[in-house]
Design brief:
The complex is a heterodimer of chains A (373) and B (200). By secondary structure, chain A is of the alpha+beta class. Chain A is built from 11 helices and 8 strands. At the A-B interface, α1, α2, α4 and α6 of A face α4, α6 and α7 of B.
């Protein structure tokens, strides 16, 4: 009986030991296993995902790439540590890389937000300003003889501007910016070149103004007619007694910018002239015509100076037979240097003009500022 | 003695069962990666970028979950396997969506290419009828230059289309189409204006 009791006690003691020891061992086994950095890596992954949703991969490329690279490093280190015996694992580097990755992803997202907003504003302003330049070019230079090279550059610039607008409307701001840069270069360059040509041409404006003032004064003093031709605006303005009486559209030689230099240059001369002869319909093929005294003494002197300077060959001829005539209204500069009006308007001018009536031909009656405005 | 041996064996068996019931589902991971690569080949990143980013993110989450399980004493890959299967399905859908979207863009470019040709041909006829009134000729000179620029743009769009970069081709042809249409309107308005004036 005593032996049996002793055996029972042994079993109870054994069970008690097992119940205490096994959980203790299990607790020790589990407790000392290093905790994997699940939270850190998850945080970094979410940060990258959010940055990507905010287009950081496009608008904050470098930072986003760095964030991804640090995330990859974290994953590589995690895998490496997992290959070690469970109690020898150390996830510090994994957590560190994950933290850097998350920080960079957050920065990338913020940068992307800011640069997208800024870029959007910048692009909108640029689209507006380039459209302004494009309209200004269209307004100012439609009738100005620009070279085909400049016209092609304007067309190219407008095409890029359209592409930039399409990309902008589709939210492709970087592409829009790229196209905008090309459009800006072509349009501003063409505008600058064309404006510089115009500025150079308008350096003669003080002389033109003096001629115009003299013509109006003469008309006022003599109570007579005076005809002024404004080449830039394609207008023929008739004054009587110093007052503006008629304004008509005119067409010129196709190389109308600048003074006439030589025979056959298709330029309309600039200067102060007089009507020397009137031709009615029987004597001209251009409805009616008023012959000017081109070349006058100033033209001849200038022509001789150009030959002497070597600007013109000695064999060059000065030309002549510059008239105000009819057959105009074609909408293009088609004469060989004459000034063409529509027949009905030519009939009026023909009626009031006399031999000796002054005709002043200027580049413009208004200064460049007014033209540009 | 016999009891002790039995208890020891039971404990070992329990530990073995608990710790080895999770083996990394490598086949499923490879299948998911292959599906994502296929989606990328289908240019999902170009045509359905948001969806593609979501698949990539889902795979990143799975990779992290795998490592998390690997770090545990008692691994459990069952839920991960389910997520991998879902990712494969999603990646396949994204690839299919990308293909559909690509076809849509291609069809849009093809349609615009056809319609712009009609507009350009019409513009070529209209320009011969356009009025040459005040400043008309100079404007026509600029329009002719614009039409040359549009032709060049259409040719570029065709080149991009032939290369299979339909998104870039779409932007170009849309811009060219807008420009050609605005010229068409401008020319028609000018012609109509002159006709109206003649009737008066």
């Amino acid at each position: 009986m005593k032996r049996k009791l002793k055996k029972s006690w042994k079993i109870i003691f054994g069970i008690a030991i097992t119940l205490v020891v096994i959980p203790l061992v299990l607790f020790t086994l589990i407790h000392f296993v290093p905790k994997p950095p699940v939270g850190d890596v998850e945080y970094a992954r979410l940060a990258i995902s959010q940055a990507s949703s905010n287009s950081a991969d496009i608008y904050s490329k470098t930072l986003f790439r760095e964030a991804k690279s640090f995330y990859d490093s974290a994953m590589i280190y995690w895998k490496r540590e997992n290959k070690k015996f469970v109690y020898f694992r150390n996830y510090d580097s994994v957590s560190r890389f994950a933290a850097i990755s998350a920080k960079k992803a957050e920065q990338a997202m913020e940068n992307s937000r800011i640069s997208t907003t800024n870029l959007k504003i910048k692009l909108k302003q640029k689209i507006e300003s380039l459209n302004d330049i494009s309209s200004q070019i269209a307004q100012m230079f439609t009738s100005y003889p620009l070279s085909s090279n400049i016209r092609n550059r304007i067309s190219g610039g407008n095409m890029f501007l359209k592409e930039a607008e399409v990309a902008y409307s589709r939210g492709q701001y970087l592409q829009s910016n790229k196209k905008m840069t090309e459009a800006e270069y072509l349009l501003t360059d063409s505008y600058q070149t064309a404006t510089n040509n115009l500025k150079e041409y308008f350096t003669s404006y003080p002389v033109w103004r003096k001629w115009v003032e003299n013509a109006i004064n003469e008309s006022r003093q003599n109570r007579s007619y005076s005809i002024i031709v404004d080449k830039y605006s394609r207008k023929c303005v008739v004054y009587f007694s110093g007052e503006k009486k008629y304004v008509y559209d005119v067409e010129l030689g196709k190389n109308w910018v600048g003074d006439k230099k030589v025979k056959g240059d298709h330029a309309t001369p600039e200067g102060t002239y007089r009507i020397v002869k009137k031709f009615d319909s029987n004597k001209t093929k251009y409805f009616k015509a008023l012959l000017l005294d081109y070349p006058n003494d100033n033209d001849k002197a200038e022509f001789r100076r150009r030959i002497a300077n070597g600007q013109l060959p000695p064999s060059a001829k000065i030309g002549g037979l510059i008239e105000i005539h009819g057959n105009g209204g074609k909408g293009i500069d088609w004469t060989e240097g004459c000034i063409a009006l529509s027949d009905s308007e030519m009939a009026v001018i023909y009626k009031i003009a006399r031999e000796g009536t002054p005709v002043t031909i200027v580049g413009s009656m208004v200064d460049l500022k007014q033209v540009l405005d | 003695m016999k009891n002790k041996v039995l208890m020891g064996l039971a404990a070992i068996a329990m530990v073995a069962v608990l710790s080895s019931c999770g083996k990394v589902p490598q086949a499923e991971i490879d299948a998911a990666n292959a599906a994502i690569a296929a989606a990328q080949t289908a240019e999902a990143n170009v045509y359905v970028p948001t969806e593609f980013a979501a698949v990539q993110d889902s795979m990143n989450a799975i990779n992290a979950a795998v490592e998390a399980q690997k770090g545990k004493l008692f691994k459990k890959f069952g839920p991960i396997k389910e997520k991998l299967t879902a990712t494969v399905t999603l990646a396949n859908k994204v690839a299919a969506d990308a293909a559909t979207k690509k076809e849509e863009v291609k069809a849009e470019v093809t349609s615009l290419m056809a319609s712009i040709k009609t507009v350009l041909d019409e513009n070529k006829t209209l320009i011969t009828k356009a009025p040459r009134g005040k400043e008309g000729a100079a404007v026509l000179e600029q329009i002719k230059s614009d039409m040359t620029a549009i032709d060049a743009s259409v040719a570029e769009a065709q080149g991009l289309f032939d290369k299979g970069t339909y998104m870039d081709a779409l932007n170009k042809i849309k811009a060219a189409n807008d420009k050609a249409t605005s010229i068409n309107t401008e020319l028609k308005d000018a012609i109509a204006k002159v006709k109206g004036a003649k009737k008066k």
